[in-house]
User: Which sequence fits this backbone?
C-alpha cells in the first residue's frame, strides 16, 4: 500500500500533471472572461443585424448562438496559445546552456612529441611509425 501511495505521489508531483491542472483552472477562468466579452461586445453587434425570421427566433437565433460559441472557442484557444507560447519562451530563457564537453587533447607523436592528426599511422614531422610504437 505504501508503494502505491508513493507512486501516486510521484505521479501527482510530476511537472506535467501540475502544469495540466493549472492549465485547466486558468482555461476555465479565462472562458468566463471570453464569455463576458462575447455577451457585452459581439452579441449586440450580431443582434443589430437584420433579422431573418420573426424576432430572431428559430434558425436565426440558433445561428446567432452558434456563432457566439464558435467565436468564444476561437478567442479562448488563441489567447491560451499565446499564453503558453510566452510561458515556454520564458522557460527557455531561464534554462542554462548546456556546458560543452572539454575538448580532448590532440594526440602527440611518441618520438618527437609533436601534435599529430587523430588516426595517423606515421608522424608528419619525424616520420616515426606510430602503430609500431603502440604495439
Assistant:
Amino acid at each position: 500500500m505504501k508503494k502505491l501511495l508513493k507512486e501516486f505521489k510521484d505521479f501527482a508531483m510530476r511537472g506535467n500533471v501540475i502544469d495540466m491542472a493549472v492549465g485547466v483552472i486558468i482555461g476555465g477562468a479565462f472562458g468566463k472572461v471570453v464569455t463576458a466579452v462575447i455577451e457585452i461586445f459581439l452579441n449586440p453587434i450580431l443582434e443589430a443585424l437584420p433579422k431573418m425570421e420573426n424576432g430572431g427566433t428559430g434558425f436565426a437565433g440558433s445561428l446567432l448562438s452558434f456563432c457566439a460559441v464558435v467565436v468564444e472557442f476561437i478567442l479562448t484557444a488563441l489567447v491560451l496559445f499565446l499564453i503558453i507560447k510566452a510561458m515556454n519562451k520564458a522557460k527557455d530563457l531561464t534554462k542554462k546552456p548546456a556546458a560543452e564537453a572539454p575538448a580532448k587533447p590532440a594526440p602527440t607523436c611518441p618520438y618527437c612529441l609533436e601534435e599529430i592528426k587523430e588516426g595517423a599511422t606515421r608522424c608528419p614531422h619525424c616520420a616515426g611509425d606510430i602503430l609500431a610504437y603502440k604495439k
In short: Residues 59-94 form the longest helix (36 residues). The helical segments are 2-13, 15-48, 59-94, 130-134. DSSP finds four helices and no strands in the chain.
